[in-house]
Amino acid sequence: MATLTFCGAAGTVTGSCSLMETKHADFLVDCGLFQGNKTTQALNYEPFPFVPGDMDFLILTHAHIDHSGLLPKLVAQGFNSPIYATQPTVDLLEFMLRDGASIQESNAKRKNKKNARRGLPPVEPIYTMPDAEATLKLLVPIEMETIFEPKAGIQVRFWNAGHILGSASAEVNVEGDKADGNTLRMLFSGDIGPDEKVFHNHPDAPEGFDYIVCESTYGNRERDEYTLEARREALKNELVEGLKRGGNVVIPSFAVERSQELLHDIDVLLNTGQIPPTDVYLDSPLATKVTRIFIKHANTLDDVEVDQSMLFRNKNFHLVEGVEESKAVSAIPGGAIIMSASGMCDAGRIQHHLKANIWRKEATILFVGYQGPGTLGGWITRGAEDVRIHGKEFKVAANIRRLGNYSAHADQSELVDWVMERAPVAGGLFLNHGEDEPRAALRELLDEKGLPKEKIFMPAFDESFELSAGTPESKGRTAKVGEPRAQEALICHDWNNDYAEFHIGLAKRLEEAKDDCERMQVMKELKKALTQ
Ligand SMILES: [Zn+2]
Q1: In the CATH hierarchy, which fold is given to the domain comprising 228-402?
Q2: Where are the chain's structural domains?
Q3: Ligand 1 center to residue 90 CA distance, Å?
Q4: Which pLDDT belongs to residue 303?
Q5: CB of 76 within 8 A of CB of 47?
Q6: Which of 162, 224, 354, 431 could potentially form a cystine with 193 if both were Cys, beta carbons 3.0 to 4.6 Å apart?
């Protein structure tokens, strides 16, 4: 008898964490950070709905922070068992977890300064550098497509997921855990990449499972043109147009994979004279370190045109590390390509580059990745006229552009193909790691393709399922420890966003008022509303 609980990434795309309880062992698949609006982020401070010290092992599908970012918290709270991942994932985590710890520590420091001024008690960081170091010691590298047995009775095998360097789907077999005493066959997709991607082969895994847990990020979306040529052509057009305007082209970019894909494509465009010689700045210390790991694993990259010795080494490239150097890049008035993290603009050096460029009408902000609702990138791409960065307001005058063909995720038809290639699915398919709309759209389409709707589940946050007898049976939201956590409705809609919108609206209303008399009237009515 086995139970599967979705402790994250149910109805959202962050905080991936699935709990499996079997007769042989209890284990987790991924343990990701919750990202997005403040209500979602607050989940990172909540206790886990299980006892971390009781877990026998953890299977990590890939290094992205929404799958790995709470590992140090897990370890800080008593988890002390092996974490299995592929070698490139282990290498990436070495930098990503330390980077995550220093972000947590500096966030807490900043917040505590603010709290002290307001007379509020200090907060603790979610985890610290020693927690990250302790986590790194638990990592165990495993070869792709090699069966290993983390505990007697449980066999696991990683398959290429084609999503980022080292990314894997995990096949998990639990001996004698089916109602008839046979082996329970499961597959956790992790994040699945598109068919055509510069560095990776298309995703793969065997067929014939009892249960599949599949991501559904783009369950309702078909990507724009997606061949490598079409993608580079689109990037070329954006860069040529952007540079022609005289300003900088600022590209918010995820540190892992996206930055390297862009660098590689820009390298090709520069070398073939398709864009004019231009200085290209990668201003993200993490992205720079990740770029070195790509060079280390260049022999595993699946692109015939990649000359491994020349990878990312164009003379126009500047890998920025120090803060002073970063400030100098912010001061460049135009004519440069500036890539920086975070990809959704909610933290990191990109915010400084936005502050320096977003109000300039000759500048271009080019988005090349998913922008979550409630993030700064989400606001800008949804057409905000003004934005607040570091507590200051900025007019959005730059040309805001989007390239939809740089996805690390399979689109709708690729997800459908991936699932149907894994068929038959005897018990059920769980759609996680997706908002409700894409999950529902994917479910409908799979039903049309022959996987009946009744076998496709959209688990709720903290929902558990009994897996031992054919169709999975929901046991509802059963927290093993403490109370069930925040409702999904709250996660999707955050009052902080309403507040920010109200703030900007008020400033605008006061600015547009014809005189101070009208302004005082507006304020008077608002004060009245506050006391009602
Ligand atoms: Zn991912």
Answers
A1: Rossmann fold (3.40.50)
A2: 3-221+408-491, 228-402, 503-531
A3: 15
A4: 62
A5: no
A6: 162
